[in-house]
Amino acid sequence: MAVKIKDIRVICTAPEGINLVVVKIETNQSGLPPCGRTGYQ
């Protein structure tokens, strides 16, 4: 069965002055890690 993306959410935040982007991807497969993150200047 192919993995299909159901939803993508992008959350921009700056805890303690550190720029941070969190990406949450919801798929039709359970058990896959749903989040990734990166910092930027």
Describe the structure.
With 41 residues, the protein is mainly beta. The chain has one domain (5-39). Helices cover 0% and strands 54% of the residues. It is built from no helices and 3 strands. A 3-stranded antiparallel sheet has the order 1-2-3, with no helix packed on it. It starts with a strand and ends with a strand. The model has no long low-confidence stretch (mean pLDDT 83).
Itemize the secondary structure elements and their pairings.
Elements lengths: L4 E9 L6 E8 L7 E5 L2
Antiparallel strand pairs: 1-2, 2-3
Summarize the structure.
The chain has 41 residues and is an all-beta fold. The protein has strands at 5-13, 20-27, 35-39. The chain has a 3-stranded antiparallel sheet, with no helix packed on it.
Q: Give the H and E element order.
A: EEE
Q: Taking Cα atoms only, what radius of gyration do you get, to the nearest Å?
A: 13 Å
**Termini Cα gap:** 39 Å
In what range is the share of β-strand residues? over 45%
Shape: elongated
Name the average pLDDT.
Answer: 83
Largest sheet properties:
3 strands, antiparallel
Secondary structure: number of strands: 3
The number of distinct structural domains comes to 1
Low-confidence stretches: none
DSSP helical segment count: 0
**Percent in helix:** under 10%
Structural class, by secondary structure, is mainly beta
In order across it, which strands form the biggest sheet?
A: 1-2-3
